[in-house]
Amino acid sequence: MAAVPVLVMPLKLWIDRPGPLTAESGYYPSGHTATAMVAYCGAALLLAPRTGRAGHGWAMPVAVVLSAATGIGLVLRGYHWPLDVLGSWLLCGMLLALLVAALRRIDNRGAAGSGTGAP
Description:
Strand content: under 5%
Helix content: over 70%
Shape: elongated
Number of strands: 0
Number of helices: 5
Distance between the termini: 41 Å
Order of helices and strands: HHHHH
Oligomer: single chain
């Protein structure tokens, strides 16, 4: 979550694009979409291994639907252009891919360290 403003704010300042219903600028990428996607999908990534067999596979689809609904809602209400939302989805997709890689690396280190068989 802390990485979202670090990534989004410089892009907003650099691109300086006005929103669809206002002359104010700083609408690309959508910070609300980025925050929603990282929050929902990040929670799903952390929740999925702990939900057991009954909950296996439901967390990420729910997070994707909620993230999509957030972005689409912002476009339909006129707060963002579609490209603002798409940019956030792509940006945060990369951020989440890095999170997944980091979590896998941590899991692999833990599994390798616990299987040494030392007394």
